[in-house]
Amino acid sequence: MAGTNKSKRVILVSRDSSFLQETRAAFSSSEAIELVTLEKGVTELRGEIETSECGAAIVDMDVASLEQIESLQRVVRRLEGRAPVVVVTQEFNAAAVRILVQLQIADFLVKPITTADLVRCCIRALQGPGRHENAESQVYTFMPAAGGVGTTTLAVQTAFQLHRSVTRAASTCVVDLNFQQGACAEYLDLEPRFDINEIESQPERLDRQLLDVMLSRHESGLCVLAAPTDPADMRSFNTDVVVRMLDLVSAYFDNVVIDMPRTWFPWTETVLLGSNRLYIVSEMTVPCLRHTQRLIKAIQDRTAREVKPNVIVNRFEQKKAGGSIKQADVEEILGDHFVGGISNNYRLVREAVDRGVPLHEIDPDANVVQDLKRIILPEEAVVATKKRSFFSLPIGLKKKAG
Question: Could you identify which of 44, 154, 168, 214 might form a hypothetical disulfide with 40, taking C-beta atoms 3.0 to 4.6 angstroms apart as the criterion?
């Protein structure tokens, strides 16, 4: 390996032959990383990682095994901070996560792992902890103009699109701030783990270690921070609690997608001012569009016009008969705040919600998925449209186009 840049070298330790094979295939085309594999367990290591001059290490292990944890501890101690360590494990164990955080493990992933998530994780580890000083988290906030307009569906799907994006793929977390009626975790068939009562009186207690325990993790790698809801407990939490939570999430995730409640709380203005993009979700009814206008004005007045609300009209239909609302009416009412409509596809959305899966898992080319991509990731939507247009050409025209 003479002449190899050690800052690009990642060593993988695993006894899982299929995982080793999949990982080799995933890294084979990467110019950013050179993968070296060791087909053995962490307890069998005898200094191979420390002497490999690697830029980072991936250790596939059982975090519930005390023997393996002790072996990992020896590896980390011998490395003396020269290379970050990423742990891969078969199942989530809250007690073990606390130990991993204490050992200052760079990151950990739970199987099954998508190869894209593993590659991104390694790139972040190689970049080191200083990456957050140069790259701020992007915060996408979704706010409903009325009840039942589909805000949670669009927020969750946006998070998946950002997480799976070719151009912006990065660690992504959905934060459900609807503490009374939120459903982000339920939409993905996950258990909400965020115990807000535990930190309500002492927001400073929320640190990376506690955050890891309270996050719900989807099999795709997407994370969700959601609290068990109590519809009868209609109270507002201290602004410091919400700010501390969002600051911590933003420090450890590249993308943060916030699902806001319809009610305006004392901390609402702070969240809006901290957002990179604010989307109001509306629908094509006169009362909802009128309320959207009032909400836009309220946001601009409260934030001294520092925040520009973008409006997404859900269940959008371009052609309406008779005296119903038309696209031209929506554009006239909302002006340049209107950024796009999402097709009315009730059957697809209902199936996804009932099954606890993202929309693209049922139909990746569904109109709802593509409409949202044109708003959130316009550069990828254009490429996808061009590809579909090319593949729809007759064979003779394809040759000419080529």
Answer: 44
CB 305 within 8 A of CB 168: no
- Structure token pair of residue 391: 């593949």
Q: Which two tokens stand for residue 283?
A: 């629908």
CATH fold of the domain at 136-391: Rossmann fold (3.40.50)
Amino acid identity, residue 307?
V
Give the start-to-end residue ranges of the domains of the chain.
Answer: 6-132, 136-391
Residues facing 36 on adjacent strands: 11
Structure token digits, residue 38: 């060791």
pTM: 0.66
Residue among 1, 360, 334, 386 at smallest CA distance from 158: 360
* Residue among 206, 154, 216, 144 nearest 178 (CA): 144
pLDDT values of the chain reduced to their tens digit, one per residue, 402 residues: 334 445 578 999 999 999 998 888 877 766 667 889 999 999 999 888 988 888 899 999 998 888 999 999 999 988 888 889 999 988 766 677 778 878 888 888 888 777 667 777 787 777 765 444 445 789 999 999 999 999 999 999 999 999 887 665 578 999 999 988 899 999 999 999 998 888 888 887 787 778 888 899 998 889 999 999 877 776 677 788 888 888 888 888 889 999 999 999 989 999 999 899 999 999 999 999 999 999 999 999 998 888 999 999 999 886 654 457 888 889 899 999 999 999 999 999 999 999 999 999 999 999 999 999 999 998 776 555 544 444 445 554 444 444
What's the CATH number for 6-132?
A: 3.40.50.2300
What letter does residue 237 receive in the DSSP assignment? P
Nearest to 213 by CA among 201, 202, 204, 225: 225
Query: Cα 400 to chain center, whole Å?
Result: 41
245 Cβ neighbours under 8 A, 6+ residues apart: 175, 199, 203, 206, 225
Residue type, 316: F
Written as six digits, the tokens of 49 are 């990682």
Residues sharing a CB contact under 8 Å with residue 61, sequence separation 6 or more, in sequence order = 13, 41, 42, 68, 71, 72, 87, 88, 89
User: What does the block give as tokens for 376?
Assistant: 């959130």
Neighbour-count burial of 248, counting CB atoms closer than 10 A to its CB (0-12 exposed, 13-18 middle, 19+ buried): middle
On the question of a common fold for 6-132 and 136-391, the answer reads yes
Q: Select from 393, 375, 373, 394 the least CA-distant residue to 384.
A: 373
Distance CA 194, CA 199 (A): 10
